[in-house]
Amino acid sequence: MATLETQHEFAGDIQAVFKGISNYTKYPEYIPGVTKIEVLPPKAKGSVCQVRYEINIIKSFYYTIDMFEKKPNKIWWKLADSNLMKQNDGSWELKKSGDDAVEAVYSLEVKFKGFVPSTLTDQIAKANLPAMMKGFQKLIKDTK
After folding, report:
1. Which residue from 83, 45, 89 is spatially nearest to 65, judged by alpha carbons?
2. pLDDT for 114 beyond 70
3. Which domains does the chain carry?
């Protein structure tokens, strides 16, 4: 199992940051490794939608997650289906930290089907994190 939690400060007001992060269809243009996104109708109670990701990081795989939102402070998800994972639960928690800044706490818990050493999954997650946060900052800026 890989567990990750990081804090990042994004430029923008809290509504703009929330709007950018929840702009799921744009992820392939901004987030490294995301090759395709499909936004589907919600299936889980309270969910706003399902998002099916196609990812290419070392290996190509897909997963579908149930997305939940509490505007403008929280986005969270739970795994619905995957060919590689048996868990993918995570969240974004947003808090205003200045006139034009938002503190974002990103949390992720992932378990893979079969044996994958946690040191490998931790290294992959940590190596991709800086580029992912840069991509989100650009997405937030471009989503107006």
Report:
1. 89
2. yes
3. 2-142 (3.30.530.20)
